[in-house]
Amino acid sequence: MERIYLDNNATTIVDPAVRDAMEPFYCHMYGNPNSLHSFGIEVRPYLHQAMEQLYVGIGASDEDDIIINSCATEGNNTVILGFYFNLLKDTRKKHLITTQLEHPCVRESCRFLEQHGVKVTYLAPDRDGLVTAKMVKEAITDQTALVSVMWANNETGLILPIKEISEVCKVRGVYLHTDAVQAIGKLKVDLQEVPVDYLTFSASCMVASRWAAAGPAPSMCLGWSRWARRWSWPTPISPLRTPKSGACGTNWRMRC
To answer: 201: Cβ–Cβ under 8 A, 6 or more apart, which residues?
Structure first.
């Protein structure tokens, strides 16, 4: 019996063109792009090319940072937990705002921070299933440091007003993170038009690779941050990350 796959919001099949773009880096050009020997040097331009495609794809500026990690869960955890331990912990602002619509990795990260004295407001959706900019505006206080709202919901398909929410956060001087896993590849995501501070997304939901650098994982996530340079990030890129980056770059070239 022929099966029909209807769960593309969870993960997608790898597009043949993406698979073909990845194949040389598994079998022929497998050096670590950070290495100084010829195996690494020959791979490095392809990594740079893939990263450039990602920058163009989401409209990121040259001074912004794209951080490749293992999955969307890691990306969201990195933003929320990293924001607290690197920027928020020693300040007077101890309030975060998120929604009841978020992926469990966002909600659980916020619950973890509650154990460290952070107050978290979980906004409930309205009768239409949305969290509006007005709701975010009314929830912001002088203690609010970060707002985390997904761009699109994986279960209802509803698109949240991230541009309007970003305008509210900018006026109030509050950082904004958006989980854009369900938006990338389906909606126009341009950081020049919607200036969020942190954006996370996953290649596995846009017909690209869903393997991590060091072993099996649900997806390969790309996190974007305007403020990442303030943090202490591990920088090495393992050999397997070259095909993953190339896969996502190839996917973007196909879509653009």
So the answer is: 72, 75, 179, 180, 181, 183, 184, 189, 221, 222, 223, 224
What pLDDT, on a 0 to 100 scale, did the predictor assign at position 225? 47
**All structural domains of the chain with their residue ranges:** 16-26+59-255
Instruction: For the domain covering 16-26+59-255, report its CATH number.
Output: 3.40.640.10
For the stretch 52-107, pLDDT in tens is: 888 888 888 877 778 887 788 888 998 999 888 887 777 788 999 999 999 999 99
DSSP H or E run through 82: helix 72-83
**DSSP β-bridge partners for residue 187:** 184
CB neighbourhood size of 157 (10 A): 11
- Return the structure tokens found at 247: 């896969």
Q: What is the pLDDT of residue 210?
A: 61
Residue 145 near residue 116, CB atoms below 8 Å: no
